[in-house]
Amino acid sequence: MTINTASATAGHRPFEVDPSLPGISFGGVMRSELSKLKALRTTWWLSLIAIGLGTFIAGSVAVSYRSFGGNGDELALAEQGTAGAYFAMILLGSLGAIAMTTEYSTGAIRSSLTAVPRRTTLLIAKAFALTLWSAGVTLVMMLLGHLAVVLFSGELSLTAPFQDTEILSMYAATGLVVVLTTLMGFGLGVFLRSSAGAIVVLTLILFVVQMVLAIMYGVTEGAEWVEALLQIEYMALLDSFVSADAGAYGMVEPLEPWQGLLGILIWVAVPNILGWLSFSRRDA
Prior knowledge:
Elements: H1 5-11, H2 26-39, H3 41-68, H4 74-80, H5 84-106, H6 108-115, H7 119-153, H8 160-163, H9 165-192, H10 195-219, H11 224-232, H12 234-242, H13 257-281
Helix pairs in contact: 2-7, 3-5, 3-7, 4-9, 5-6, 5-7, 5-9, 5-10, 7-9, 9-10, 9-13, 10-11, 12-13
């Protein structure tokens, strides 16, 4: 029996990409990543805890302020009312890490790369989705926190952010650093590919490094190199950006707000660049 190779070849046309097809748009990829975020229970739990904790702390600060008698400084009261943002940073930063590491733990990263083979596009879409989500959560948290301070303190007006540009700027700066910290957690998740590892490193950056440097400052009796490290430590940069009068724990002179923001951007950029390099070169 013979096989007609000519007819067999003719019956199977080679695969060709239709140039008229639009392909997957960036907006479509970002909507897909938002859907993935909303599908995770962890997203809702961490977001609700951040909102609830931020509102509770703002209310507690307002009650304490009223009980012990404040000095009538609206800016100081509003700034104290945003203390919950520090906890929101670790919660939403953890969400940023989990948003990526969960793809590896479930094996969904292979499906994601099949649908979006351009890895850089996938990473940017994930980052944008996280930015939108964390910005929304932070906005709700700060609105409820401001309302709690207004209701329980009796010292801050509801329209204070629109009457005092310093309060509005402080709120905007606080919200921005929460979003940036979320992106730093995302970069750590991309680079380390481990939820536990990324969250531990994020916790070290946010809470442990400052304590170690403060101890070193006392032990070395204010050595210049420790002062330099204190100024560029993440939380000190955050304080310099949000509140120029805060300083680095009262031990060294604070940087200018623009210098604080630049330092924060560098802290956020480093793990994201390392994560992008790792993600674009390593196997899924």
